[in-house]
Amino acid sequence: MDEPILNRVSNSSLITINLEDLRIEGIRFFFDLKNIMENGVIIRENKIREFIKEHDWTQYSNQFVAVGCSTEVILPSWAKLLIATSLKHFAKKVVIGNLEQLETVLFERVISELDCTEYQNKPIVIKGCSDQTIPDSAYGFLINKLQGYAKKISYGEACSSVPLWSSNK
Asked: What predicted TM-score, i.e. pTM, was given to this entire model?
């Protein structure tokens, strides 16, 4: 009589964490200062203040917004700050930078608030091959957080993971 094939992965105490599951839902938007510059290279205070008065800021309601410039020009810091202050009352979160920096800030918040007690002394696999909107820094935040709880941390898939850290307890 043949014995049934056992799935050792599904029967183990191994816990898989997928950062996609921790990603905060919501619209991300990059507010590109390039679009309000004169000739694509000049930004004047009076013009930006005029833009701020006339612009419909409600379109960013409940969005996560990164404020930056996609062209390589030297911008005064106040330009980004003026836009950020105008967005503050509408957007869920405003970050000076690009969309990856915005994602980094959002993941840092979620991971810092993560209750890791269920991972105490357990082997953890951080799922690899995730959505490309997850910045590398998010993996770093998660590993740092889990090191205070997990027995072992690996990266990849349960059937073929790369060991990253072990508590050696």
From this structure: 0.86
